[in-house]
Amino acid sequence: MASLTISEVAKQTGLRTSAIRYYEEIGILDSVERVGGQRRYDRSVFYRLSIVQRAQQAGFTLDEIQELLTGFVPGTPAPERWKQLSSRKIKELAAKMDEIQFMQSLLKDMMTNCQCDTLETCGKCIFHQIHQQEQS
After folding, report:
1. Beta bridge partners of 35
2. pLDDT-derived band of residue 135, with 50, 70 and 90 as boundaries?
3. How far apart are the C-alpha atoms of 25 and 33, rounded to whole Å?
4. Domains of the chain by range and CATH?
5. CA within 13 Å, CB half, 82
6. pLDDT at residue 62 greater than cutoff 80
7. Strands, DSSP E only, in the chain?
8. What CA–CA distance (Å, rounded) separates 34 from 126?
């Protein structure tokens, strides 16, 4: 029985009504019946939105969430869906962690080793370091 307005759903989930409308527009939420021009949801909307919110907390994009919800052969069990997408996301996060560690290393090196008087001098040092690494 569809009885909740979009405002009630938004209030209970902490989402903006515009986000809920957008989720419907892009197919993350199914279109719902309207009464007097207003969307009416049943309580199952909270289950779908809980999945969306958890996936976002885990770093999934809306496209990835769309794939989780609708991008599998009908009947694909939830664990298989999570496993496939989570495996890809873990690899992506590992690459980002490597990138962050590299950036931290560069920052620490600049903090402790830079003795330049000007940024121009610093730029020359960096230029020579880069070209020495390329020749190695």
Report:
1. 38
2. confident
3. 14
4. 6-135 (1.10.1660.10)
5. 9
6. yes
7. 34-35, 38-39
8. 63
